[in-house]
Amino acid sequence: MYTVSEYLDMMQAVDRSPNTIRGYRVIFESFARFLHVPLEEVHNHLSSENLIKYAGSLKGYSGHTVRQRLSILRAYLTENGVQFRNMEMKVINARRRTDPEDKPLALETLQKMMDITDERGRAFISVLISTGMRAGEAAQLRLSDVKGDTITIPGKIAKNRRGGKVFLTAEAREFLDIWLKN
Description:
The protein is built from nine helices and three strands; from the N terminus they run H-H-H-H-H-H-H-H-E-E-E-H. The chain is mainly α. A hairpin with a 2-residue loop joins strand 1 and strand 2 (about 150-155). The relative contact order is 0.08.
């Protein structure tokens, strides 16, 4: 039987990315909190019933997040010899639709953000809005990644590890130029 640490070590041995391993650890920690046990003890509390109860506790998460968490935990349980009956698999694999709780920022809110921040903040916010980039990607960009109105996102900082190109609006380019001049 694998402990969580041993399982994550095995994942590292098969070249899973550090980000993937961190993400798995977060999911295992969430499961441990649900079970009210330390992370090192999770392997002693593995059962299909516990996973189904955990699935029921994930209200408010997006369907994608729930499916991802359950898939990762199911693989861990299966690796540790837990078997799932047909109906249990149906419960775990059920499509879960949730309405996203986050809503786009109102124009007034964006304007307030732009009004109260400094030049760097205005450049950052406008680049995010203009390109749709993730904040983590934008924060790791280098000046050499910006050429004119095109930003090349290096694969090593992109969430999908493939990178790509995004394009700045004239307004975002203007805010970026103002910040860079100072």
